[in-house]
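re: ur question from yesterday

yeah so i grabbed the chain u mentioned. its 239 aa long if i counted rite. heres the sequnce exactly as i have it in my notes:
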Amino acid sequence: MPYDHRVGNEGKPPFFPEGPDVEVRLVVVESRSLIREGLCELLLRHQDMEVVGTSASLADSIALLAEVRPSVVLAALELCDGSGLELISRIRRAHLDARVLIVGSEPDPALARRALAWGAAGYLLDSVGADELAGAIRVVAAGAVVLDHVFAALASSPEPVQPVRGQIYLTMREEQILECLAAGWGNRRIAEEHGLSVRTVEGHISKVLTKLGVDSRTEAALWAVRHGCIPAQGHIPQQ
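ran it thru and got these structure tokens back, copy pasting raw so excuse formatting
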């Protein structure tokens, strides 16, 4: 689906002003209880929305989602035991249909790109207004992807690229693959985490090795650590 990135007269995206005919079933995942409760109170003012559950942690979220089957999950980027991006991966592995709208505090395009690359249906800043948030939820429930208006320029590139060093450029997907290699993940785990086939993962790895000018996944992982692309922690995979 195309990004809903058009900008209105006041510099804000023209989210749907009216709710859809069908009710939007929501789960709110936010570790801070005051913010979680405030979001629920705001959203319940909209007659087309129903908050069917809340969670304070990543650990408790999947069981809840499997039970209540929401159409949209409103998740904080940072959770007490993980992140909203990890939640997306767990939802995919559990074969749930919920679409995830991430809310973060940093106006960093790299974070927005990363959220979309992980499969988020949208990324908003926590400075968003209540009516804008409700509109964005409707956009996501309708099957589109929404970005905070400060990230509208990202929509002009179907596959953003991330500069790594000099003339070497990796797409966001390739950057993810490189991170996984540095973490020592095998192809099957990478495939499961990112909703890809093992063959597709193998193709991405081949492209990463070619771009970096190395011959093995071990060399790629070492290259990433040495050039500051990946934190020097965890283990380097064996050849």
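noticed a couple things. DSSP finds nine helices and eleven strands in the chain. also The longest helix spans residues 198-212.
anyway ttyl
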